[in-house]
Amino acid sequence: MESNEFSRRKFLKQVALLSAAATIPSYIKASNNALSAVGLTKANERVNLACVGIGNQGGSDVMSLYNTGLCNLVAFCDVDMGAPHTLHVLNRFPDVPRFQDFRVMFDKMEDQIDAVLVAVPDHSHFPITMMAMGLGKHVYVEKPMARTFNEIELMIKSAKRHKVVTQMGNQGHSEANYFQFKAWKEAGIIKDVTKITAHMNSSRRWHTWDPNIKSFPPAEPIPDTLDWDIWLGVTQQHEYNHDFINGQWRCWYDFGMGALGDWGAHILDTAHEFLDLGLPNEINMLKAEGHNPFFFPMASTLLFRFPERGNMPPVDITWYDGVNNIPSVPEGYGVSELDPNIPPTSIGEIQPVKLNPGKIIYSKELTFKGGSHGSTLSIIPSNKAKEMESKIPYVPRSPSDHYANFLLACKGEEKARSPFSIAGPLSQVFSLGVMAQKLNTKLLFDRKTKTITNNQLANELLIGLSPRKGWEQYYRV
Fold first, then answer.
1. Right CATH number for 3-172+408-420+469-476 from 2.120.10.30, 3.50.50.60, 3.40.50.720, 3.20.20.70?
2. Contact 143, 120 (CB under 8 A)
């Protein structure tokens, strides 16, 4: 029996459908065995961590988790074990067992794994995460959670059902801005927010490409060290091209989520959580410079509209990306400095631009200026900030960074700050935005039924294309 077939059967057995839950046949239900296997690591033990995706951002995540001193690295998995970006980690830890297929890894090492890092291209987050949770493993998944609205929906429900610890990798959610926004919201400093301008105007990988593209790039020889079939995962068949891998996947609708999926969580996560935004009821594509059906526009302006929530007024969020697609800023904005705490990307340090990544939050009484990741907010203009000094509450320091927070949550010592229940709806906002980018249109979304009401094609894209043959099990159980 082939290993992936064995893995498939084992996975299906672990997450066998329970007759009592037959009213939701499309979602995973844990068997009694799977549920009994789920547990927290003892306080005096390290978490046994398997890492799927160990190059580029994955390599950075591996080291960040390891450097907490809270985990043992028990397995490495990557589709390209001979690439320079994976060899850096492999050479650092030569005795850690290594695999190219995550299904084989789980088959051979399931009993030795407590938690899993998933740091692979966006299109591959879903099957790895679903299998890990189905086997009772805690999961740290890079942002955004997944590529389609439905994948994220399934991940949210599966995490709840299997009672595992989950964390999405938006590091700023454990840094200063998280605790500041929470304290300022609770103290009534941030209230009655009506609109937010979010901007990410750094150059992106596809900005040098020809937007008049008529087809995918031509087939090239597959590198000897790369398992292209596993790299493709659930997506439809594509011929290998170097412009699909090593971060280039983020450029293509079929694999990634563009600038919005990459930076949206770093800029909007605290506002989304603490303003209880949930899902929008309208997504309007206001600008799509260089629009084409294959990769993301050279510049995008997207308007997300969120309705009233309790006693909070409606909120409009306008997203700007593109080097010259700069939003206007309010009087007294001041200088836009690049926060030194923003970590480098897989292609190097973020370079200063005309307006550095961040947001402007407008309430009925105050205006706030903020950056990305953990960058703190300031009240503008400066004279208004001076008036507010006596009302500013104490902001506690973070007890742990995002990686330590996840591992401590696996040990039962902290609560994960960006679990799927919180990060999922945020990621779904981005998936809706990407759909509007791809179709270059306005979408009306029903928050109760979670359907798009004005565009049948877009409504079908909530689920997306069927997975490739051999990868269906992650969706249909």
1. 3.40.50.720
2. no
For residue 326, what are the CA distances in angstroms to 25, 197, 300, 345? 46, 11, 10, 21
Which pair of tokens denotes residue 191?
A: 């209230």
What does the block give as tokens for 422?
Answer: 């919180």
Parallel/antiparallel/unpaired status of strands 442-446 and 282-289: antiparallel
| End-to-end Cα separation, the chain, in angstroms | 22
Per-residue model confidence as pLDDT tens digits over 66-104: 999 999 999 999 999 999 999 999 999 999 999 999 999
pLDDT in tens, 240-267: 999 999 999 999 999 999 999 999 999 9
Segment 449-472 mean pLDDT: 95
Length of the chain counted residue by residue: 477
Going by C-alpha positions, the residue among 74, 22, 25, 68 that lies closest to residue 52 is 74
What integer is the mean pLDDT of 258-285?
97
Tokens of 65: 């988790």
Query: DSSP secondary structure string, 423-448?
Result: HHHHHHHHHHHHHHHHHTSEEEEETT
Sheet holding 378-380, edge to edge: 378-380, 367-370, 358-363, 193-200, 315-321, 299-306, 282-289, 442-446, 451-452
Percent of the chain with pLDDT over 70: 87
pTM score: 0.90
How far is residue 79's CA from residue 142's CA, in Å, rounded to a whole number? 17
CA–CA separation, 333 and 247 (whole Å): 34
Domain spans in the chain, listed from the N-terminal domain onward: 3-172+408-420+469-476
Between CA 295 and CA 325 the distance in angstroms is: 18
State how beta strands 442-446 and 451-452 pair.
antiparallel
CA dihedral 334, 339, 340, 342 (to 10 degrees): -170
Let me know: does 66 contact 46? Beta carbons within 8 Å: no
Phi and psi based region of residue 440 (left: phi greater than 0; alpha: psi -120 to 50; beta: remaining): left
What is Dmax (Cα atoms) for the chain? Answer: 72
Counting Cβ atoms within 10 Å, is residue 256 exposed (0-12), middle (13-18) or buried (19+)?
buried
Pairing of the two strands 442-446 and 378-380: unpaired
36 — pLDDT class (breaks 50, 70, 90): very low
